[in-house]
Amino acid sequence: MTKISIPQDVILKGAEQFGTPLWLYNRETIEKAVKDVKVFDTVRFAQKACPNLSIVALIKKLGCVVDAVSAGEIVRALRAGFKGGVEKGRVPEIVYTADIFDRDALELVKKYNIPVNVGSPDMIQQLADAGIKSELTLRINPGFGHGHSSKVNTGGPLSKHGVWHEQIKDCVKLAQANGMWITGLHMHIGSGSDFEHLAQVCDAMCDASRRLGSHLRTISAGGGLPIPYKPEEKGNRIDVNAYYKLWDDARKKIQQSIGHDVSLEVEPGRYLVAESGYLVTEIRAVKKQGENLFYLVDAGFTDLVRPSFYGSYHEISILPRDGRVLDEMVDAVVAGPLCESGDVFTQEEGGFVVTRKLPKAKVGDLLIIHDTGAYGAAMSSNYNSRRYAAEVMYTAGELKVIRERQTFEQMLQNDRVIEF
Ligand code: LLP
Fold first, then answer.
1. Fewest CB atoms within 10 A around its CB: which of 109, 150, 290, 387?
2. Closest ligand 1 atom, residue 152 Cα
């Protein structure tokens, strides 16, 4: 069992003060993760992983820039202190990466002069039609992909993401015909990649760069750096330096063939925030269904959807409120409060419910789900009319609220009751 990086008394106090379910983040863990990836020239945080304003602002303070995939993420990036605009010789602070513009996004891209990482040729035409002449980067689908689940594989002919690798030249022509230049290439083939796939992506980047030619100034390795979710993976973390080295070698090859410097970006989401976060829940019922023991907690897939959606594994700890020693282990299923049989935290891909060896627990104990800083709060919903949980950061020995628990009023505020 991996040790929780926030002291137990702090967690107990947090649960008392802010109620459960509760997202707790450890600032130090984020700082350490950022340091690891700073070997790259530019670290662009994929804020979709955890878009809380304080988290985005912290990551800014640590010297990173940011990616935005929607109008809302542009607004968040601006609110967190990043600036729009493109200046010669400076890394753009916000880049919009998507496969389409919705109308809101196009409007904000224009208003704040946000550079675009284009995921489909139609976007180039739409920029031109909107009277925007900006430098572009192309997100390439190299024709293959990889990921921890088929749902996060973002390359290959069945993926909607990116410009198909054979269309690079057409995009260059389309951009030039409209007074725009493509100055960067980007590849993100999925989340949780391994080195074998990575080497393949680096080769694909070199190929793509040949098709683009001499305007190339930036290549982006995308995101996808994995973190160890399972205890047996903990001793075998990804070697970020080796990851960098593969990309740096690709960059050097490209520089040699085009004859000038190219800067190297990386765009991690999960790696920067996943391990900083814990979902703190309370056990509200302990019951037997036939032979199976169930711990029912007050968080559901409306809070953390990863196990239900991808069969993702998260470590689980029990923290008793009464200070008793946990010396007996049992096999238990951990599930939430929703009216959905898939609302189970211990399940495998395909929805197979499994048990987990956990300490014998009772109602009132805290149950803590680890490594939930990425795609945890970010993917929460109001389904079953459950409110968004509070988010709290542990920083300099203190707990600070970075998002209040949603009130019932806030949950209902945009509903309108019409006359019947
Ligand atoms: N860049 C692009 C263009 C992306 O599409 C993504 C993730 C990232 C960067 C960041 O990937 P990361 O470093 O976080 O793996 N909800 C899923 C992950 C979906 C990722 C979507 N795109 C999960 O909970 O695992």
1. 290
2. 19
Question: Any catalytic annotation for residue 64?
Answer: no
Question: Measured at the alpha carbon of residue 320, what is the angle toward residues 319 and 325, in degrees to the nearest 5?
Answer: 100
Q: What is the pTM of this model?
A: 0.97
Please give all residues whose beta carbon lies within 6 A of any atom in ligand 1, as ranges: 46, 49, 97, 152, 154, 188, 191, 222-225, 267-271, 306, 374-375
Q: What is the pLDDT of residue 192?
A: 66
Query: For 349-404, what is each residue's pLDDT tens digit?
Result: 899 999 999 999 999 999 999 999 999 999 999 999 999 999 999 999 999 999 99
DSSP code per residue over 222-283: -S------SGGGTTS---HHHHHHHHHHHHHHHHHHHTS--EEEE--SHHHHGGGEEEEEEE
What whole-number distance in Å separates Cα of residue 284 and Cα of residue 384? Answer: 18
Which residues of the chain have a pLDDT value below 70?
A: 192-193
What pLDDT is attached to residue 193?
67
* Centroid of ligand 1 to alpha carbon of 193 (angstroms): 11
- Segments in 259-406 forming alpha helices (H): 270-273, 306-310
Pocket test for ligand 1, best of 45, 137, 270, 308 (most atoms within 8 A of CB): 270
- What count of other Cβ atoms lies within 10 Å of the Cβ of residue 88? 5
Write the DSSP assignment of 152-203 as a string of letters. Answer: GB--STT---SEEGGGHHHHHHHHHHTT--EEEEE---BSS--HHHHHHHHH
Residues ≥6 apart with Cβ < 8 Å to 247: 40, 202, 219, 221, 264, 266
CA distances from 209 to 56, 118, 234, 251 (A): 31, 16, 36, 10
For residue 400, the cross-strand partners are 393
Provide the angle, in degrees to the nearest 10, between the axes of the packed helices 121-129 and 103-112.
Answer: 60
Largest CA distance in the chain: 72
Model pLDDT for residues 21-38, shown as the tens digit of each residue: 999 999 999 999 999 999
What's the confidence (pLDDT) of residue 156? 86
- Choosing from 50, 64, 206, 339, the catalytic residue is 339
Residue 305 pLDDT: 98
Nearest to 139 by CA among 123, 150, 151, 152: 123
Nearest-CA residue for ligand 1 atom 18 is: 152
Q: How far is the CA of 131 from the centre of ligand 1 (A)?
A: 31
